[in-house]
Amino acid sequence: MKKFKRHWIGGAFALSMASLMVACSDDTAVDSDEVPADENGEETGDSEEAVSSDGGGDLIIAIEADAVDLNPHGSNDTASTHIRTNIYEGLVQHDENMELQPGLAEDWEQVDELTWEFQLVEGVEFTDGTPFNADAVVANLERVNDPELASPRSFMYEMIEEVNATDEYTVEIITEYPFAPILAHLAHDAGGMISPTAIEDEANGEHNIDVDPVGTGPFVLDNWVQGNEIVLTRNEDYWRGPVPLDSATYRVVDEQLTRIGMFDTGEAHIVNSIEPANVGQIENSDSGDVSAVESLRLDYLGFNTTVEPLDDPDVRLAISKAINKNEIVEGIFQGYGVEAIGPVSPMAFGFSEDVDPVDYNLEEAEQLLADAGYEDGFSVELMVQSGNTINTQMAEVIQDQLSQLNIDVSLQQTEWGALLDATDEANYEMVMLGWTTVTGDADYGTHALFHSDNHGPPGNNTFYTNEDVDQLLDDARRETDDEARVELYRQVAETVNEEVPLFPIVHDQFRAGVSSDVEGFIQLPHGVFDLRETTVSSDAADGGY
């Protein structure tokens, strides 16, 4: 049994003073400060978002998808992570080079192959006034591994056997087996520390962490109008000192051309997810330029391995061999991405160049399909996130290329939340998806996607099951020798390329339009924006602010 020991907080928690209004799917505001809106849901009235004369300004970010929840132990999607990483902090954090740096832990050491000891920063408080200390760490790791919570991110920490608060600011973490990427996992968004008061209040039915986050980070949630915008304001009591920005507003604009239009007119300082074909519009704009960084992302075609005929590996391999990746990468990504030879990005630990990719070969594809009994082809549905132009373009190319095998592909445009639900429940046939190895370690880019323990929300949305792959993945996370780990991940990649539960297409770059009025903005290789040093010039345009 897993043991979680508290020595300082015990069972006493102060009641949260924040009132809670649960967000609804009909754009109801999360807090009590409602945003005036016109009939189209846009804000009305005089502008109050002008750049402050004594702060770092009010940053406007246009993003393509809304957060699903603001709970570090909740949804495993990028849009939610964008927001949560500004509110929560972990014991360890990544810098812009994906190097591990101190977070809420100022130091750590590996005591033996199973035991890690962390010295915590003293004097830190959560935004509800609860002290951050060793018991807070115990409460969080207990929560994420609680079977009743059923966190889709528990796979990140399921190897933790004991968490002991040995004194007020010292934590001992003991793992069930040697776990090489433990520090990288603690730096993940799921390692964000939640106030123990909020955790206790939620257990009593008095709080909802999904919509009312309480962390130690540089920003706090001011307002969330679901489907419209999320407003974060500066945490004036931030333990590292208040950040320059007064606020950061994430406006949900699923249409990319609309986001670019907002950038051109000065209605947004930063716009994300710019497809390569539209980079020129940003570069030719008087408003700013493009920030492009190599990424830890994989874009892939996923197969539901539980439905016919996609339950046949030969059918999946035939489909994959009929897809010309080079045509997709050159035609759609225009030099901003590299062809994927396997699931692991070249930027991540565990990548191997010695992986045999699934090569384009139409003749072999035809033979495989005939041998599987589908020489006349079949019909299949391909799900794509609505508003995601790049995924739609890839889907259209795949649709055209598979017609050469007499495979009739129909495209189903689906809203992001509904798409996640469908893939989590195996209620689809094929899907265009992406996965970012946000820890920088191949364990995250493979264990979540391919281990049979992770079917559904944790990441294995193809519902792939292979006992040999399970064993390789288990061995790789236990192995302490780096070269041996890389070899194990190479074997994983080789096996999944043979059985193709998903077809890896491209490791894309992350591209965003950034206003010339913005300074100190950092886009990290896992796609999240670091706003801690960001400022907006007082000369920023007034339009739309």
Give the strand tally: 24
Uncertain segments are: 1-53, 539-545
Q: What is the C-alpha radius of gyration, as a whole number of Å?
A: 23 Å
The outline comes out as globular
Class based on secondary structure composition and strand pairing: alpha+beta
Structure characterization notes:
26% of the residues lie in helices and 22% in strands. It is of the alpha+beta class. Strands 9-10-11-2-12-20-13 form a seven-stranded mixed beta sheet, sandwiched between helices. A six-stranded mixed beta sheet has the order 15-19-14-18-16-17. A hairpin with a 5-residue loop joins strand 3 and strand 4. The longest helix is centred in the C-terminal third of the chain and has 18 residues, at 482-499. The protein is globular, with a radius of gyration of 23 Å. The relative contact order is 0.16.
Outline the secondary-structure elements.
Elements: E1 3-5, E2 58-63, H1 78-87, E3 92-94, E4 100-102, E5 105-110, E6 115-120, H2 134-144, E7 160-167, E8 170-175, H3 182-186, H4 196-203, E9 219-225, E10 229-234, E11 247-252, H5 256-265, E12 270-272, H6 279-283, E13 288-293, E14 297-303, H7 313-321, H8 325-333, E15 337-339, H9 362-371, E16 379-385, H10 389-402, E17 408-414, H11 416-424, E18 430-436, H12 442-450, H13 467-478, H14 482-499, E19 502-508, E20 510-515, E21 518-519, E22 522-523, E23 529-530, E24 535-536
Briefly, what is this?
With 545 residues, the chain is an alpha+beta fold. It contains 14 helices and 24 strands.
Which key terms come to mind for this protein?
545 residues; globular; 14 helices; six-stranded mixed β-sheet; disordered C terminus; disordered N terminus; alpha+beta; 26% helix
